[in-house]
GAF domain-containing protein
Amino acid sequence: MSDEYNLSNAQYTSLYEGSQALFRIISERLNVNTAYVTRRGKNEMTVLSSFNDKEEIIPEGYSVEYGGTYCRLIISNENSTMTTADLTKDLITSQLEVTDQLGVKGFLGVTLRDREGDVFGTLCVMDRDEKSFSDEDIEYLHSLSGILAHMIELDQLNYNMTYLNVPIIPITIGVSVLSIQGIVDSRRSDIILNHVLQYCTDHQVHTFIIDLSGLIILNDQLPRVLSDLAQALRVMGVRPLITGITPEIAKQDLRNAQLTSLNIETVRSLEQAMALIGFSLTETKI
């Protein structure tokens, strides 16, 4: 799964809702107390969704450093599976701190992948009692991980529909505004640049306002498309204006002077941008 999209756990709504619907079925079928889905982060595994039948063993949001998790053993296994009847007696898992913390014995986990085959996380079950899982049980859990993979893809597609949108709004003749929302990676940068330049040509735009109030900064870097877009607009004879600079964006520009070095005109709001070019926004009473 591409890190470029960087969805938060809360944005995997289909996966969350789908896993919740499946967990009780899994619990009854495998006779276990707990079933859960984890998501693999840069250095940790975090429980995205969980079900606990008689007692809470794994809460949602529970996070453990990757090297100390059962998930590492699942993902690194050539069969993408790890199972043991008793975690406290297994040579490897008995040494993990998380085993003492959770106080569980029976465990089965399989790797959860997205539709491209990249590791998303794991689908696991566990119980206080010793549990021996059959090959049929393992195959059953793998089949359900395939269903959840479709839900991951659905969440990605839903996010990408918004992610790739370039909402240019005409304000008046020759003046338009683009509000850049969310994360801007290299792929989206190309889409924004090409779409804006073509739009300005087709609509004879002379002033283009770029609003950054919804921009999410990724990896402490302002997206290069901001400077590329401003320079390209100038070459085309279009005046670029930037509004909506948040404190976070301002702090980033202090470090790299990306916007400052281009001497781009900046204002605080759309209203000020319109005033700068000789227009005013007035309220019409009905």
About this structure: Confidence is low (pLDDT under 50) at residues 1-5. The longest helix spans residues 135-163.
